[in-house]
Design goal:
Blueprint: E1 10-12, H1 21-37, E2 48-51, H2 53-62, H3 66-77, H4 83-95, H5 101-118, E3 125-132, E4 147-151, H6 154-167, H7 171-180, E5 188-195, E6 203-208, E7 219-226, H8 230-234, E8 240-245, E9 257-261, E10 267-271, E11 279-283, H9 286-289, H10 296-313, E12 317-323, E13 330-337, E14 347-353, E15 360-367, E16 371-378, E17 392-396, H11 404-407, E18 412-415, H12 423-431, E19 435-437, H13 442-445, E20 451-455, E21 461-466, E22 471-477, E23 487-492, E24 509-513, H14 514-522, H15 526-530, H16 538-547, H17 554-573, E25 578-581, H18 587-591, H19 613-616, H20 622-639, E26 644-648, H21 654-666, E27 678-682, H22 685-689, H23 691-695, E28 700-703, H24 705-713, H25 731-746, E29 750-753, H26 757-760, H27 762-771, E30 775-778, H28 783-801
Parallel strand pairs: 16-17, 17-18, 18-19, 23-24, 23-30, 24-25, 25-26, 26-27, 27-28, 28-29, 29-30
Antiparallel strand pairs: 1-2, 2-5, 3-4, 3-5, 6-7, 6-12, 7-8, 8-9, 10-11, 12-13, 14-22, 15-19, 15-21, 16-20, 20-21
Length: 802
């Protein structure tokens, strides 16, 4: 690489580091830092140079622009002119200026040397603005100034540099500096001139070393699309997304890719020609839209580089990457601090209306504990979801699994039907969106556009108030929350919400529901993928073809999607245990999956029919269970998340337990091998009556109170007519639970509770603690209240437990 004597106007990137932010800005200083210290670690970065802040100020002084700029800054602040008009005038002053000869010659000379280094006449370069200020880590200037790609020749380079100088005074950059308290004339501009990595026929994108939605720190999130990177940076395409688990990067024989999500990638930016220095967007081909932009090896390489960069800087980073068109080699072209999640500490929010109100329009079951305000958005069909905004509160009869991407955009959700275990309730909890379900009359009482307040802060009953009401939010410092002796775990299902709860002081996941991953991400009956020729309708066959068109083997679609869903949940709590329950659909629910009707019998009472363990060794489903086992094996052994524990639901007999374990072993999941633990749902009276016998075949139990209550009291839990009889507080149910806890402990195995009751009523958690439960698994929104309740009970019981 080139090294030159000190030039006041130009510095080579390998001459600068983070100590020169005031001279070359955060962006260029970071590039120099990586070239100096990270290139030796294998990270490839194109070379180039940077103009200094001194060159910028020299340009302003040479053209006598300081006073005119000051004048217009004053006019904008006094509101004598608008921000748009004032900044436009300043940009015009700068654009009409003339380069001082020493500055222009320094840029020409450096560009000429870069051409020699790459042995290219008029080498193509990227010209990027880099704002200079001392305190950049808390104020990223990313995206506020301009970037120019495929710039060729000295004269075109000087024109692009002048445009970069002017872009320091775009309206958005001016407003940003005002908000952050920066003096406009003390923020200068450096220009980075870097060899272009051409990617017309390859790909480029961005990398974050943190989950940008939740702040979860243990993942690398990669976005990528075809062509030059500006489309991804500016958000003009829907890119591919890859999520990689950082703690397992570099582990031998592990591929810790948690997610691969195909983007639509409708267009790509390419060179308009090889001579004129312009770029243009063209439509991508059908093959490009249907293909991932990176291979698994490339995903892991980028993630490893991102981890090295983050470790060097000691903070989360926002990185740009590109793949060279000729060499297919990956390069890092930018890295800056990620600022969105830079706030320290872990807090939990408590919501409260400022006063009681009588104008209640509706009530139902509250999901979550927050309050939101917004406008009613009636949803009658999936097409109504297209224009959802964060000011909308969705009102519908009941949500559908494929609505999840739209639901997470909404402020809140209201449904006519459903209970605490319905789809809307479970998904809302995990996405952190408040909901009121089972209102009966929501779609008839509430009108489109009506302003309402949705409150889930008043206990089990959620309320819908007329109008926009004021409320307060109290933040609780989780670091001061004492962790109880009883393990507090999470109930999770949707992978989308898993990272949101990483700050909660929990001991892992006590119940991860596999069936929700199947309905939301796979949607196809596993046997329909294995025996595609037996699918009954052409409509179903066509849907399956569309969903699996990336796979030669349709069963791989099921395995990969299920594995990725489980992996995201497992990663969110790693290395703490994550108990994954194998599928527990009823036959009517299986039949509703795409292609499912051909493989499911019609049962009069599916709740007590062919479900849970009885399916896994059955000739009619064992091939489907084999796919579940393959997915679990992939998560534990290929991805490397060996914190996953497998749990078997609805196991009726000891003989059945033996058959299921044998089936698992045949599919590569042998209990005890590679640390695999297998738990059983304790939800059938037989499980309690024969506790000691079942304990010989499992490493732990988890009490499922919904089915246990149903079977002890003889009450169909889905029966509206008998809902008044369905009571987990019933003495018979509590006696059975207390009994099985004692007998499990005598048998030397752990026993937890993953039913709904303690999430709805913290006093139920108190009963479980008094009974000696090892762990209580809760919906995320109820964790704080239950922890406080458990701490109180444990203080009372402490003398007995010492």
């Amino acid at each position: 690489m080139i090294k030159t004597t000190r030039n006041p106007f130009v510095l080579w990137l390998n001459e600068v580091d983070n100590g020169k932010v005031s001279e070359v800005g955060g962006k260029n200083a970071s590039l120099g830092e990586m070239l100096k210290y990270l290139s030796p670690k294998g990270i490839d970065i194109p070379h180039g140079f940077a103009t200094t802040a001194h060159a910028y100020y020299n340009y302003l002084e040479h053209n006598e622009l300081i006073e005119p700029i000051k004048k217009y800054i004053g006019k904008i602040k006094r509101e004598d002119t608008s921000v748009e008009e004032g900044t436009r005038a300043i940009r015009k002053f700068i654009s009409n200026g003339i380069f001082p000869i020493p500055v222009a010659q320094s840029i020409r000379d450096a560009y000429s040397q870069l051409c020699v280094e790459y042995d290219i006449i008029n080498v193509d370069v990227a010209v990027r603005s880099s704002a200079t200020a001392e305190d950049l880590p808390t104020a990223s200037f990313a995206g506020l100034q301009e970037t120019y790609l495929n710039v060729r020749g000295e004269e075109e380079l000087l024109k692009a540099c002048k445009k970069c100088f002017a872009s320091l005074f775009t309206a958005r950059a001016f407003v940003y500096r005002e908000e952050k308290g920066f003096d406009h004339l003390k923020v200068g501009l450096s220009i980075g001139v870097q060899k272009m990595v051409r990617s017309d026929d390859t790909s480029s994108g961005v990398v974050f070393t943190i989950d940008t939605e939740s702040g979860f720190p243990n993942v690398v999130v990669i976005n990528g699309s075809w062509g030059l990177g500006e489309n991804v940076v500016r958000g003009t395409v829907n890119p591919d997304q890859f999520v990689v688990f950082k703690p397992l990067l570099g582990e031998a024989d592990k591929k810790p890719i948690l997610e691969k999500k195909l983007g639509t990638k409708e267009q790509k930016m390419i060179y308009a020609s090889d001579e004129d220095g312009r770029t243009r967007n063209v439509s991508t081909s059908a093959e490009e839209r249907a293909s991932f932009v990176l291979s698994d090896d490339e995903i892991l390489k980028l993630a490893s580089w991102a981890k090295i960069i983050e470790e060097h800087y000691g903070r989360a980073m926002d990185i740009e990457w590109v793949k060279g068109q000729d060499s297919k080699q990956l390069y890092i072209v930018q890295a800056r601090p990620e600022t969105v999640h830079s706030v320290e500490g872990a807090t939990f929010k408590n919501y409260q209306l400022r006063q009681n109100h009588s104008n209640v329009l509706l009530t139902g079951l509250s999901i979550g504990s927050s309050i939101v305000t917004g406008k009613v958005k009636r949803i009658n069909k999936a097409g109504d979801l297209q224009d959802i905004s964060n000011e909308d509160i969705l009102v519908t009869q009941m949500t559908e699994p494929d609505w999840v991407p739209y639901m997470e955009k909404a402020a809140g959700i209201i449904t006519d039907s459903g209970g605490r275990t319905c789809h809307a309730a479970i998904v809302s909890r995990e996405l952190g969106i408040p909901a009121v379900v089972g209102t009966h009359f929501g779609t008839s009482v509430l009108k489109n556009g009506q302003e309402i307040t949705l409150s889930c802060s008043e206990g089990d009953e959620g309320k819908i108030y007329e109008g926009i009401l004021k409320f307060d939010v109290q933040e609780i410092d989780l670091s001061k929350l004492k962790k109880p002796k009883t393990e507090i775990m999470l109930n999770l299902a949707a992978p989308e919400g898993a990272f949101k709860w990483w700050k909660l002081p929990t001991s892992g996941v006590g119940l991860a529901r596999m069936e929700f991953i199947i309905t939301q991400h796979i949607r196809v009956h596993p046997m329909a993928l294995i025996h595609f020729d037996r699918v009954a309708t052409e409509k179903d066959r066509e849907e399956i073809r569309k969903l699996t068109h990336h796979y030669e083997d349709k069963t791989a679609f099921f395995v990969n999607e299920l594995a990725q869903g489980i992996a995201k949940i497992a990663a969110s709590q790693y290395p703490k245990p994550v108990i994954v329950r194998t599928s527990d659909f009823k036959t009517n629910e299986y039949a509703n999956l795409i292609g499912g009707a051909a493989f499911e019998p019609l049962e009069q009472n599916p709740m007590l029919g062919w479900r849970g363990a009885s399916r896994y060794y059955s000739e009619s489903y064992r091939e489907g269970f084999a796919l579940e086992c393959r997915a679990l094996k992939m998560v534990r052994e290929e991805i490397g998340l060996d914190n996953v524990i497998v749990m078997i639901p609805f196991c009726r007999t000891v003989d059945e337990a033996q058959k299921v374990l044998k089936e698992m072993e045949a599919n590569g999941l042998k209990r005890g091998q590679q640390g695999l633990e297998v738990y059983m749902m304790c939800e059938i009276p037989a499980n309690i009556i024969l506790t000691e016998d079942f304990a010989r075949y499992f490493d732990g139990f988890s009490i499922g109170s919904n089915d246990l209550t149903q079977l002890i009291l003889g009450v169909d839990r889905d029966s509206a007519a008998l809902s008044f009889l369905f009571d987990e507080h019933n003495a018979a149910v509590k006696t059975a639970i207390s009994d099985v806890i004692k007998r499990a402990h005598k048998s030397g195995i752990k026993i937890g509770f993953c039913g709904q009751a303690p999430s709805d009523d913290p006093t139920y958690a108190a009963f479980l603690v008094e009974a000696g439960i090892d762990s209580v698994s809760l919906n995320p929104d109820s964790v704080i209240n239950v922890i406080n309740q458990v701490n109180k009970i444990e203080r009372k019981l402490q003398p007995e437990r010492v």
